[in-house]
Every structure is written in structure tokens, then in C-alpha cells.
Design brief:
By secondary structure, the chain is an all-alpha fold. It is built from 4 helices and no strands.
Amino acid sequence: MELDKIRQGIDAIDDKIADLYEERMKLVGQVSEAKKQSGKAVNDPEREKNILLRVSDRVSDGNQVYLKRVFETIFETSKAYQTMNAEYHSEIGEKIKE
């Protein structure tokens, strides 16, 4: 397969990932509001652990460690967004604003 053609496939997947990330962040905004109203903490390590277990089953063993890193980054940006939305401050949230 030609390199340009392979990269076109990767670009198409990247576009889908960006669209799904945007959709996820809209839901994160709703989660933030619900947590704010109920007084729940932004951080939920048990939920993160359960998500990692669930999504790890969807990829090959060789990709699980990489997927874990991707989701850890997603969790961090989601928590930063929730923290900023809840009018708290976080280190990563401040970096994102810069």
C-alpha cells in the first residue's frame, strides 16, 4: 500500500476521533453541571478504572498500554474542563487556557 493512501486512511480516522471527542466533551459539560448540582467531586477514580477495563477489552493486547495513555489524557482534559466549568482551578486547566 502506498504511504499517501495509508495516511489518507489515518487522516479519516483522525477526523472521526476529533468529532467523537467534541461529542464527548459536550457530555462532559453536562456531567459537570450534574456534579455541581449534586455536590459530587470532579475526580472519580473508580469510574476511570472501570472505563479503562472496558475499553482495554476492545483492542489487542499489544495496544492496551497505548490506549491506556490515550484515555488517561482524555480523563485529564475532561477533569480540567469540569474543574474550569465548576469554577475550581486545576493545573492542567490553567495550562489549557494559555
